[in-house]
Each structure stands twice: as structure tokens, then as C-alpha cells.
UniProtKB/TrEMBL annotation:
InterPro entries, A to Z: DUF4178
Organism: Acidovorax soli
Biased composition (Low complexity): 473-483
TM region(s), chain numbering: 452-471
Record-given protein name: DUF4178 domain-containing protein
Top-rank taxon: Bacteria
Record's compositionally biased regions (Gly residues): 484-496
DUF4178 domain residues: 76-205, 281-417
Keywords: Membrane, Transmembrane, Transmembrane helix
Disordered: annotated segments: 473-496
Length: 496
């Protein structure tokens, strides 16, 4: 366990049951007794019982209290130990914040949200912050002279806790939560459950980079999923992931809302005109060095503002226990692999470019998107008819996409994939022709290529096409690539 030689631990009996309750950090004011679940507050050398904490919900996390690791801070590797856990519920779902005890006695936070991790530390914002309700999605503000974009503004509440903790907001009482993100990958959270608001700044981390020891046994992830009967047709429905907020019935394809849990009131919505995914749900395979499983599928339609021509694409939701979720996108422009970004790209005032992690992306398409069909499990409350406004950017083979709803802006970044890569990853050799798309070219034009070269290539292509057309002997026939997985024609506005 990571600790400093000068750090004095404090231990006292729980006021509820007499079991020992330990405080390792002088910054810790609260703790939850591991025996009777009493919430206790420390005042000097006196512990006072505030009440009983609700049971933790099973989030299937590989982390647990007393796991230890190392994090690089200011160029130095610093040991830490996870001493507490806070579980929150908000407008967009549930997430966990682990309290990390550093060797200097201070506390940090390892945030865990659907398999993605952010390590952050408290900061002084350097100015008085506005009320939570005054933050607007998409606006830009400066904290300590650095620009941030408002990615989320909504309500959250503490639902459970464990171990040694900083000051807690009232259990079950909603408070404001705001997330700011920068173009270099930083995330800054403002927690209005404290007075003054608690501000933390951090970056995304990978579990393997934290050199963690004392994780849960790998067998913990093999626990049986929850099961219930479909509220529409009565068929049994199995839930595999603890983070699932929506699921579809395998028998009638109804979308079932799990926002209140399996034991709560289940609401369902029928889906007609079923769409069949080419890659089956449950398929497993390696992509970009990570072993993924297909857990969800959604088909979406888009239309550019002022246009009446729609286009479609498909998104496969992929899951890995330590990497969280990613999206395998199948559009008329080919296959791509994208993941939500931690930071928020900086978009130009014109909206024509966006810069992220030092790379500038050019706008390709702007359009309104709508979800038309879903299958499987999702970590957000997906429903048919959900609408967003999207912008897609590209740089060489890199991709950047923005989706904006009423309460949140989400950015995703990734790369194009060759069709053969998808075929090999999921062992779908028998579907190779069906999965074939217009793959990314084998080269990218070098900077400074002359206009004459480009014109020469175009002229040669035109001559070849004319010759082929004359040889075919047909008039008025045309060729169209299978493009998107369902043959939908697109004028070029394909997603991502």
C-alpha cells in the first residue's frame, strides 16, 4: 500500500457497531463502516454516525478498495491506493469515482464511467464560478487562463459509497454537475454538491498503464446476468452488462427501458421493419490490439439541413472490460472504429475545422441524425427516434465526429478500417463479399502535389471510363456500389 512515512493514520471504533474505522488522509472527513454500512464523519478525534449508507450496486468493475498502483504526476511516478468508492446517478446514467490516496497524504479521484477512466486532482479555479444552471452546452470558458468547452451540464446525486472519503454531498439529493473539456484532452469537472463547488482536473488513463495490483479476481466478470420477462411478449430477456440502460427483446425486438432497474417498472416500445446486422451480436474479435465483443447494434438515418435526401449507416457497439466501449461504424464510405474522446476538440468559429491533440480536421458533413432501429444492450437509454445534430470531420485517415443533443455534446475520434480487417477479426470469411466496402486508399497525396498531376490523373480516368462505356454497348445503365450495409443511396453525407 502506498503511504508516506510522515503520514499519521487515525483509527477509531465505529459509533454504530464498534468495528475499527480508519482514516489514512488528513483530507478525509467521512468514511463508511465496512461492517454495518454506517456513514461516519470525523471531527478531530471524534467519530459521529450520520446514518446508514445504501448498498453498492454491482458495476462489474475490475477495481476494488485497497488496490494499489502508480500514476505519473508532473513527470514523477507517484504510488497510490484506492481507499474509497462513490457511486453517482445522473441524467446520462451512473458512474463511479474511486478515492485515491497519494503518498503525500492528499486525495485524488480515479473516475470510472462505462469502462473509461480519468485520473484527476482538485484545483483552485482562480475565480468565482457561476451557478450550475447558468452553464450552456457548447459555450467556451476559461479556467486559470485555459479555454474549455462545456460538454455536459445537468443533475446528479450520490447513491452509495464505501471506505474512506472526502466530504460527501447529501445522499440521494440532486445537485448540479458540469463537465468542461479542452482541445488537448483534459477534462475538468465542477461538483456543485459542495460549497464552494469542488473543481477537479484530469486526463484519461488506461488501467494497464497504472500498474495496478490487487484487482478483483478475473472470474468476477463471469457472474450470471440478470433475467426478466419481456413486458410486451413475455419471453425471457437476459441482461449481461451491469451498465445496461436499454435492451431489446430477442423474440419481439421491443426496446426495453431499464432506467429503473430490472425490479422497477419496465417500459417497452415496439419496433417494426427489423434490420438484421451483418456481424451477429455476441461476436468476438481483435481490433486495434484489443479483444472486443459485439453487444449492441443500431441503424441510423441522416439528412442534411434543407435537403430531403436521406442516407443510412449502422453502428456496432463493442465492449471490453478494461477499455470500455467503442463503435464499429459501417457506412457507404467504408468501415471505421471510433471511441468517445476525453477532451473536446476546438472548433473554429466558422465550423469548418476542428483541432484535437494537435491535429486539424476539415469538416466533411453536417446533418441531422435519427436512430431508426436497435438491437442488444446499450450503456445509455437508447430509444427509437432519438435525434442529434452531427458534424463529421476528417484528416488523412483520421476521423472526428460531434453529436449534439439538448443536454450534451459528445465527440468521438478514430480511424478507418479495411474491410478485410473486419472480416478477419470476427471470422466472417463466408460474408466477405457482403462486408466489402470502399476501403481507404493505399496512399495519401503528398503536400505540394502539383495541379498538373491531379489533372493528368483525372483525364486518364475519364478516357478509360469513356472506352469502357462504349464497349459495354449500353445506354443509360449505371453502377452503384453496395455502399452502406443496406444499400441505401447517399449523396456523400455518410456518418463518420
Amino acid at each position: 500500500m502506498a503511504e508516506s512515512a510522515t503520514q499519521r493514520h487515525y483509527r477509531a471504533p465505529c459509533p454504530g457497531c464498534g468495528a475499527p474505522v480508519e482514516f489514512r488522509s488528513a483530507q478525509s472527513t467521512h468514511a463508511v463502516c465496512g461492517y454495518c454500512q454506517s456513514t461516519v464523519v470525523r471531527s478531530g478525534d471524534v467519530l459521529t454516525r450520520l446514518g446508514k449508507m445504501a448498498e453498492l450496486f454491482d458495476d462489474h468493475s475490475p477495481l476494488q478498495t485497497m488496490a494499489s498502483g502508480r500514476i505519473t504526476l508532473d513527470g514523477k511516478e507517484v504510488p497510490f491506493t484506492l481507499v474509497g468508492r462513490l457511486q453517482y446517478k445522473g441524467d446520462a446514467g451512473v458512474w463511479t469515482e474511486w478515492t485515491a490516496f497519494l503518498e503525500d497524504g492528499t486525495l485524488a479521484t480515479l473516475g470510472e464511467d462505462n469502462g473509461a477512466y480519468v485520473f484527476s486532482r482538485p484545483i483552485d479555479p482562480g475565480r468565482e464560478l457561476p451557478e450550475a444552471a447558468r452553464w450552456s452546452i457548447g459555450t467556451t470558458t476559461a479556467i486559470n487562463g485555459k479555454p474549455y468547452s462545456v460538454a455536459y451540464a445537468g443533475q446528479a446525486q450520490l447513491v452509495s459509497a464505501q471506505g474512506e472519503l472526502p466530504k460527501l454531498p447529501p445522499l440521494g439529493q440532486p445537485f448540479g454537475m458540469v463537465e468542461l473539456r479542452s482541445s488537448d484532452g483534459e477534462v475538468l469537472s465542477i461538483d456543485y454538491g459542495h460549497t464552494p463547488p469542488r473543481v477537479e482536473r484530469g486526463r484519461a488513463v488506461l488501467l494497464e498503464d497504472l500498474q495496478l495490483q490487487g484487482l478483483k479476481d478475473e472470474s468476477a466478470k463471469d457472474e450470471k446476468g440478470r433475467q426478466f420477462n419481456c413486458p410486451h411478449c413475455g419471453a425471457p430477456v437476459q441482461v449481461q452488462l451491469a451498465s445496461t440502460k436499454s435492451i431489446t427483446c430477442g423474440s419481439c425486438s421491443s426496446i426495453i427501458d431499464l432506467g429503473s432497474g430490472v425490479g422497477g417498472e419496465l417500459r417497452s416500445a415496439m419496433q417494426d421493419e427489423p434490420v438484421r446486422p451483418i456481424i451477429p451480436l455476441g461476436a468476438k474479435g481483435p481490433l486495434q490490439g484489443v479483444h472486443w465483443q459485439v453487444v449492441g447494434f443500431q441503424h441510423r438515418m441522416g439528412v442534411a439541413p434543407g435537403d430531403d435526401e436521406h442516407f443510412g449507416w449502422s453502428e456496432y457497439l463493442l465492449y471490453n472490460q478494461k477499455r470500455g466501449f467503442a463503435f464499429l461504424v459501417d457506412s457507404e464510405e467504408g468501415w471505421s472504429m471510433v471511441r468517445p474522446t476525453t477532451g473536446a476538440p476546438q472548433m473554429a468559429a466558422t465550423g469548418r475545422t476542428a483541432t484535437y491533440l494537435g491535429t486539424t480536421y476539415q469538416l466533411k458533413y453536417s446533418y441531422n441524425a435519427e436512430t431508426t432501429y436497435v438491437l442488444g444492450e446499450f450503456y445509455w437509454p437508447v430509444e427509437r427516434g432519438q435525434k442529434t445534430f452531427n458534424r463529421d470531420f476528417a484528416a488523412a485517415r483520421g476521423l472526428l465526429s460531434m453529436e449534439q443533443s439538448a443536454s450534451e455534446i459528445t465527440w468521438s475520434a478514430g480511424d478507418r478500417l479495411a474491410s478485410d480487417t473486419v472480416v478477419q477479426a470476427f471470422g466472417l470469411g463466408d460474408k466477405k463479399d457482403v462486408l466489402q466496402r470502399d476501403d481507404p486508399g493505399p496512399f495519401v497525396a503528398a503536400k505540394g502535389a502539383g495541379c498538373g498531376t491531379v489533372i493528368l490523373i483525372v483525364v486518364v480516368l475519364l478516357i478509360v471510363l469513356i472506352i469502357m462505356s462504349n464497349c459495354s454497348g449500353s445506354s443509360g445503365s449505371s453502377y452503384r456500389s453496395s455502399g452502406g450495409s443496406f444499400g441505401g443511396y447517399s449523396s456523400g453525407g455518410s456518418h463518420k
